[in-house]
Amino acid sequence: MRILKALVVVAFAAGVMVVASVGAQEQAKFGADPAYKVPRLANGQPDLQGVWGNNGVTPMTRPRQWKDKTVLTEAELTEIKQLAAKSVDEGGDAIFGNFIQALLDAKDKGEYKQQSYDPTTGNYNQFWMADREWDTRTSLIIDPPDGQFPPLTEAAQKRRAEAAARPRTRGPADGPEDRPLSERCISYGAPRTQPNYNSYTQIIQAPDNVVLLQEMIHDARVVPISKELGSKPHLAKKVRQLHGDPRGRFDGDSLVVETTNYINGFQGSTPDVKLTERYTRVSKDFINWQVTVEDPATWTKPYTFMIRLKKAEGQIYEYACHEGNYAMEGILGGARREEELAKKGKK
After folding, report:
1. At what angle do helices 74-87 and 99-109 cross, to 10 degrees?
2. pLDDT tens for each residue of 250-280
3. pTM for the whole thing?
4. Which of 279, 248, 268 is nearest to 49 (CA)?
5. Which of 140, 178, 198, 337 is surrounded by the fewest CB atoms within 10 Å?
6. Where are the alpha helices (DSSP H) in the chain?
């Protein structure tokens, strides 16, 4: 695990400290410096190279308490920051999930409980999490305008209902191949959009390829770059890859990456999902990373969210995970012990 903690930086975008409805196009330009000119490489490509951190606190979906707001006032932002400072214990369990929604709910209830997503064993403490970046947006989703995922299709509702109805177990553990890819330190999927924990991406550019190197489990996506859309077609539909089949091009100051041919899909989609990412450098220190998700078999219409990536000082080191397989030995050993106790009629 890399020891790299970002300094707390409060990012304010000029001219947005008002309660208003801001359209998706305007939100995609959030924080842009109108005087900034994107530097260019020798081949004319916009220079996006470097290590970029995804440590924003803005939630994916808009909290119900902010239903009619796309941005906050400065006073509202200060209030939620003060609530966070008062509620969070650095020695308590690490905080994952929708932190802002939990804080707003705590404000309504008068109490915030900092509890691990696995209360049986607990978690490492909050000290090891990167410091969060704050801005005035109320959701990462910029389209639909309500800041929520689009409705699921009937087929997707049925799939999820069937999955929820299945008995919840830890799953098989006869061997390591039975365990999830993340548990086996193979992959967390790509693109990985979760913030705050090893959430850094290094962008490396060459004339014909761009590499998007994720810190988490050191996944690297090699994106072939074409000058014209469609000049480097995707693989045949039957050829599927864990991280999909990415194809890229430059559109003005933006890197556009289109990915299809997934094995497992993205954010609950089917494998036939199409992702379109836009990496746009809007200032010296920020890239606005816009992702559009299209899967007619899962959502009734596409949706788009935008993550702000902040320039980081330092480099990405190897993510060791459990290369010695110590955790896997414990998982499989625990499963054998449970089987032994089950044979004896014990729990």
Report:
1. 80
2. 999 999 999 999 999 999 999 999 999 999 9
3. 0.85
4. 279
5. 337
6. 24-28, 74-87, 99-109, 154-165, 326-343
